[in-house]
């Protein structure tokens, strides 16, 4: 892609629209149907080393941290390695114990975020194995890490991340699949995930075709005083990212909580002009999520659900196509990028350059 706007009014819109092609690119040449796995040429981690990994710790900032949360779940589900994610900025300041059996992964679009780079340098100084999941080829983080997976989202110009977020989540699915097939993921599950990954570009196009309906919803929700985003397990990082995106471009205050945490405090905020966005995938937590919708409705809160089927308790449901449950977060975030975009547009915001923000934070 060039830096040309390509007929779009903003880079954010252009980059949202490019996601089917971008995902196609991150998959291209990497799938190995013969062994139901993927090839990740730059990983620099052989099968024996991969089997020796006892934990995975993912580090990044902002949207990159949120994709790290999705990545940790994918690695834990597919490779059955305990995995978690932490903001790189917190990690570097807390004198963390560096464990030789842990595989550290730095995530970054730009590859230049200072806090993430500093975390990598500290880890390297202490002898850790650090991989990168990075978009910009040859960037500082790509150079400092021992190997990794390029995200191949293409240039991302808008300050808020959209296509790179999605592609990074797909890159983590590839990494989870690769590690899983070296460890205990079956051939059948490998095939199932590969088939799911292959469906993604067409399903992204289906989600993007819902834009006119999402534009109307954005007009309905643009008068909100604040918004609450909730999700459980796979839905929680989607809620976090959607809330960040709305804040960044529309300046509407938003909070994101794991759905089960609502009753431990934030439920006090729910009232008619504080609508909620609920991530409701058709997974084993569907009934639990429906109970959350009832909890919100009982406090007169408006609800917009992102789901695989119409949600009776919600005022509006955006339906996304069904894929394999592990891949749900990848598709469910996309309509909420459009929601943030159209809300910001309705409010007349400077979408590509939100106030007070820079594309990459290269200072402390
Ligand atoms: C993207 O929406 C954000 N502006 C921001 O949170 C960003 O993800 C963060 O600063 C990390 O940037 P990086 O991916 O380039 O490291």
Q: What does the model show?
A:
α2 runs parallel beside α8 (163-182). It contains 14 helices and twelve strands. It has 364 residues and is α/β, with parallel strands linked by helices. 45% of the residues lie in helices and 16% in strands. The chain has helices at 11-17, 19-27, 47-52, 62-79, 88-93, 114-125, 140-144, 163-182, 187-208, 211-221, 235-250, 286-297, 328-332, 334-346; strands at 31-32, 37-38, 55-60, 83-87, 102-108, 129-134, 147-150, 226-231, 253-258, 276-280, 303-307, 316-319. The protein has a five-stranded parallel sheet with strand order 4-3-5-6-7, sandwiched between helices. The protein has a five-stranded parallel sheet with strand order 9-8-10-11-12, with helices on both faces. A two-stranded antiparallel ribbon has the order 1-2. Bound molecules: 2-deoxy-2-amino glucitol-6-phosphate. 2-deoxy-2-amino glucitol-6-phosphate binds at residues 61-64, 108-110, 113, 116, 159-161, 248, 357, 360-361.
**Class inferred from helices and paired strands:** alpha/beta
- State mean pLDDT (0 to 100 scale): 95
Q: What is bound: which ligands?
A: 2-deoxy-2-amino glucitol-6-phosphate
Low-confidence stretches: none
Strand arrangement, largest sheet? 4-3-5-6-7
Label the overall shape.
Answer: globular
Give the total of beta strands: 12
- Percentage of residues in helical conformation: 40-55%
Question: Which percent range describes the beta-strand content?
Answer: 15-25%
Terminal residue distance: 31 Å
SS field, number of helical segments: 14
H-E order: HHEEHEHEHEHEHEHHHEHEEHEEHH
């Amino acid at each position: 892609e060039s830096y040309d706007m390509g007929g779009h009014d903003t880079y954010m819109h252009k980059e949202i629209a490019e996601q089917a092609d971008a995902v196609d690119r991150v998959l291209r040449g990497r799938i190995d149907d013969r062994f139901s796995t993927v090839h990740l040429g730059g990983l620099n981690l052989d099968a024996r080393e991969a089997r020796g990994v006892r934990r995975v710790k993912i580090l990044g900032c902002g949207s990159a941290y949120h994709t790290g949360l999705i990545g940790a779940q994918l690695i834990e589900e597919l490779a059955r390695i305990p995995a978690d994610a932490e903001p790189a900025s917190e990690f570097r300041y807390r004198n963390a114990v560096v464990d030789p059996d842990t595989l550290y992964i730095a995530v970054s679009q730009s590859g230049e975020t200072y806090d993430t780079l500093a975390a990598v340098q500290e880890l390297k100084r202490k002898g850790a194995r650090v991989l990168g999941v990075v978009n910009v080829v040859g960037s500082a983080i790509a150079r400092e890490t021992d190997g990794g997976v390029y995200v191949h989202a293409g240039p991302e110009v808008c300050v808020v991340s959209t296509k790179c977020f999605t592609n990074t989540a797909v890159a983590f699915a590839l990494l989870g699949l690769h590690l899983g097939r070296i460890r205990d993921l079956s051939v059948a599950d490998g095939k199932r995930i590969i088939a799911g990954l292959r469906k993604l570009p067409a399903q992204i196009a289906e989600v993007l075709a819902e834009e006119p309906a999402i534009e109307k919803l954005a007009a309905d929700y643009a008068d909100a005083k604040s918004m609450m985003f909730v999700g459980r397990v796979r839905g929680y990082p989607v809620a976090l990212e959607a809330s960040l995106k709305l804040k960044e471009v529309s300046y509407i205050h938003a909070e994101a909580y794991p759905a089960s945490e609502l009753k431990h405090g934030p439920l006090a905020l729910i009232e008619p002009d504080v609508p909620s966005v609920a991530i409701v995938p058709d997974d084993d937590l569907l009934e639990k999520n429906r109970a959350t919708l009832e909890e919100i409705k009982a406090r007169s809160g408006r609800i917009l659900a992102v789901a695989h089927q119409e949600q009776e308790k919600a005022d509006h449901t955006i339906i996304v196509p069904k894929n394999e449950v592990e891949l749900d977060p990848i598709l469910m975030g996309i309509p909420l990028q459009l929601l943030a975009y159209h809300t910001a547009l309705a409010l007349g915001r400077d979408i590509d350059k939100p106030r007070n923000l820079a594309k990459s934070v290269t200072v402390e």
